[in-house]
Fold this sequence. Notes:
Blueprint: H1 15-23, H2 28-34, E1 40-41, H3 42-49, H4 54-66, E2 70-75, E3 81-86, H5 88-91, H6 94-121
Antiparallel strand pairs: 1-3, 2-3
Amino acid sequence: MSGFVPGESFLADCPARLAVELIADKWTVVVLAGLSKGPVRHGELIELIGGISRKVLTQTLRRLVSHGLVRRHAYAEVPPRVEYELTTLGATLIEPIHVLTEWSRAHADAVLDAHSALLAQHD
Length: 123
C-alpha cells in the first residue's frame, strides 16, 4: 500500500503538488543553487550553470520570481543592470537541495548501474 489517501495530497489543484511541480522543473534546482551564494546577474548565471539557453534561464527566473522564490532587482543605471537573488522563501530550499545533491553523489553509480542493467535486458 502506498500510504497516500485519495484527496489528501498531490491532487491537481493541491498547493503541495503545485510547489513540487515548480521545484521538479529541469532547471529550477540548478538556478536556485546558482543563486545560493548571493545576488547574481543573468550572464553570470549562464556561465555558472552551463548548458542552459538565455531564453530558458529567463523563463525559469520569471517563473521563480512570480512564485516568490527569487527577487529581481533592476538598477537605474546606464547600461542597465539586473540582479537576481533568493527571497527568504527561496533560501529555505537550499538545504533540501544540498541533501538531494549529496544523495545524488552517493548513489549516482548505483542509479547508472541499474539503468545499464535494464538496457542490457532489452538488447
